[in-house]
Amino acid sequence: MSWIFSHDWTIAFLVCLVAVAGIYGAVAGCNDGGNLYGGFTSGRTINAKVAIAIMLAIPFGPLLLGNHVARNLCTWMVAICAGHPISFLVIVGGAACVTLVSWKKRIPTSMTLALIGAMLGWSVASHAQAPGFNPHVFVNVMAASMLSILYGGGLAVLLYFISRRFLGPLPSATISRMSYVQYGAATVQAFAYGANDLSKVTALFMAIAIVSGLSVSAYNATLATVFAFGAFVLGFALGGERIAKSVNNATTNLRPMESMIQQLAAGGIVSAFAVLGLPVSSTQTMNGAMIGVAAGQRITSVRWKTVRELVISLAITLPLAFGIVWIAYFSMHAVGIIH
Length: 339
Prior knowledge:
The protein has helices spanning about 5, 10-40, 50-55, 60-65, 70-80, 85-105, 110-125, 135-165, 170-180, 180-210, 220-250, 255-275, 280-295, 305-335. It has about 350 residues and is an all-alpha fold.
């Protein structure tokens, strides 16, 4: 199915599609890149230069864990946008707007829920004109998003108690030397982000290729990943530091070993969902793991501000994206842009 050929769309419109996907990727660089960078440097073991070097491992995540998330999300996008090409611009633009608002307020948010909410908003508003978005997809992604937070927190608590049981009797100097294992834990998290979160941006470029009449070969999928990571790097350079400071303020009391546990737990859970092909939020899974580490120490160590921000993000991100796209659909319908 090709918008370009069957509807005689111009190259200019194709450029607009690529630009919107690039903007979404750049917003991911601001939001997610800042969260990753802040999480890597929070344990005082990984410095800024090493954190940047570890983040260069992100695009290799799909090679190790598969491109399942990108292929699934690409399929959903193509199905929803088949009736109205402009829907791609509205869906991706709406999700990006929601994330930018959260970035402005310095609240880590879920780009996954923003994108799914926008897709759902268009699908509901257009009724039978966009039948490709199966309701089960929405239910599965919502369940995965909630479970990833709970599993991240639960695994962090388990790893914390295991570390206390086996590493507690060791001298402080020995434990301090072992903190360099955090380099490996951060790399695991980078691979997981690439296979799950970066793959969402990759899916957008893949969807553009499909609706433009191209097949998604291994080469085109790799090229889409390169474009996605390029947009991510640009976004991180422009605004990632703002989110990173917010993350560091929330994790200033983490010791190197605790930071490593948080990264292992979050990276492990996100990797598992990536293999299953279910998009989840690395940011919120990391927050769940952070809460799990704090709860493992004692319940009073939990930063309830982080919990509150996490709950607010879960509560408003999807409905806000849904509402923006829903209103946009009926506004365009009212003025005759779509029928």
